[in-house]
């Protein structure tokens, strides 16, 4: 099993979508590349993200990138839907350099590569979000109106 960290705006929607993608084994909402050791601290440069554990023999980093691109505006800087600010930037983070190489290759092979604003960086720090944010839209679907991902798209892979 391998791990990659995806930032795509509000983590509630990213987690609700990505956890159903075939080959994804587990997800956890969290914060990437900040400095604090606690979720109780002020914003410190982190990106809201989802840790994605996946089976590399079932899904590739390129396929994970395909899924991410289904739910984000890759041209937007620090904004996805109604969420605005540096913590809502789009990004791909990993401790595995090969994941970063594959993510960059995926972006560079696109015809719109020069417009894409997704950061692809080594994971320097990760902290899990509080329990209330884990699988939030599964437990509180009434909060979907806060999510930038349309409901039909959010559960595109749920039945597979």
From TrEMBL:
GO terms for MF: peptide-methionine (S)-S-oxide reductase activity
Peptide methionine sulphoxide reductase MsrA domain span: 3-145
Function: Has an important function as a repair enzyme for proteins that have been inactivated by oxidation. Catalyzes the reversible oxidation-reduction of methionine sulfoxide in proteins to methionine.
Homology family: Belongs to the MsrA Met sulfoxide reductase family.
UniProt cross-references to NCBIfam families, sorted A to Z: msrA, PRK05528.1
Cross-referenced PANTHER family: MITOCHONDRIAL PEPTIDE METHIONINE SULFOXIDE REDUCTASE
Name of the molecule in the record: Peptide methionine sulfoxide reductase MsrA
Source organism per UniProt: Vibrio rumoiensis
Classification lineage: Bacteria, Pseudomonadati, Pseudomonadota, Gammaproteobacteria, Vibrionales
Name of the gene encoding the protein in the UniProt record: msrA
């Amino acid at each position: 099993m391998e791990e990659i960290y995806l930032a795509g705006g509000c983590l509630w929607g990213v987690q609700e979508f990505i956890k159903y993608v075939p080959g994804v084994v587990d997800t956890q909402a969290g914060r990437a590349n900040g400095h604090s050791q606690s979720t109780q601290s002020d914003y410190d440069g982190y990106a809201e993200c989802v840790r994605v554990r996946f089976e590399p023999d079932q899904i590739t980093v390129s396929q994970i990138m395909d899924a991410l691109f289904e739910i984000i505006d890759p041209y937007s800087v620090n904004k996805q839907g109604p969420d605005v600010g540096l913590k809502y930037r789009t990004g791909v983070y990993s401790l595995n350099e090969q994941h970063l190489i594959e993510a960059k290759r995926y972006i560079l092979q696109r015809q719109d590569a020069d417009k894409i604003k997704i950061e692809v960086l080594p994971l320097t720090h990760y902290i899990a979000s509080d329990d209330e944010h884990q699988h939030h839209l599964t437990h509180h679907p009434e909060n979907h109106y806060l999510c930038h991902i349309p409901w039909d798209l959010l559960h595109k892979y749920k039945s597979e």
